[in-house]
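[job 4417] fold queue: 2 targets
>>> target A
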Amino acid sequence: MKRFAAALVAAASLAATPSIAEQVGEVGVDWTGNDIIIEAITDPEVAGVTCHISYFDRGVIDRVTKGNWFEDPSDSSIACRQTGPITINEIDLDEDGEEVFNQGISLIWKQQVVNRIYDKKNDTLIYLSHSRQVQEGSAKMSISSVPLYGQTVTWTKGKPQ
């Protein structure tokens, strides 16, 4: 049941996912089967940066006793680091950046999303993890930054001026 809801959302929505997550950890937190999942994602336009996301995955017993069968909580945490030589392809330089990852955390209505924003003044990549919901936005978010200052960075289209 751990990945059942995410698989249903992927099949139902047929939405393209910019990056694919690889599960690297799973920590059981109670006897009802609830777990904390840790996944690694790579930015499809920025080689050499890896983000690790953690989120809560409700177990079957929790789903049965509390209802709300097809939804996991919106809470997530993100940490991004340089894990190799950084090469930046064509990225969106707008203030809202661009989505680099998303996955369903409910049957249809809610997604966990990671956006990348380039802070030109501070020469930093910012990664924002949050949930996107159809009816109500969520104030639950987490942020991580990867400073480029002082690093050897290759910009395939030239560094923005």
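>>> target B
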Amino acid sequence: MKEVYYIEIKRKKSILFSIVLTGGVTFIFCLKFIVQTLMNGINGSPLYFILACLAFLFSLFSLKTTLPSILNKKPALILNRDGITDNISSGLFGLIPWNEITHVEQSTYMRSSVLLIFIKSPDQYIQSITGLSKNICERLYQDTGTPFAITKKTIEMSFEKLELLIQQHIKS
């Protein structure tokens, strides 16, 4: 592949911004409620305290998951002569050399259109990641046969064009 293709992430900044704003406001109110409750003692039902703690954890999770995607300026995928550089999938596998890719296919997984990219040694890639991402990739591998899937909603290029580009390089 002589050309380099940069496939951009679809960014719906207004949606992401509203999630971050909602998460941030929820975070502040819940933190205030939790601190006041701890300082004054639990008056009334402990259920409110538990719900505030759960909302606090949810807001932390929403901030952690959406802020990086707003601030990330990297392309989702880079296709060049070396292979595919992954900056978008659950595993964030980095560079996957062309000789590691066996084939690609479009599919539906958990009600989403995905492009499955099959690789020769998936266990090696799965072992290179940790935490929740590793669990997601292991489950994806069990269900589809590959840990590497790109969701249609996350990239600007059509699946058909991306699939064609990858297949052309695999065959050459």
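[job 4417] complete. Note on B: The first strand starts at residue 5 and ends at 7.
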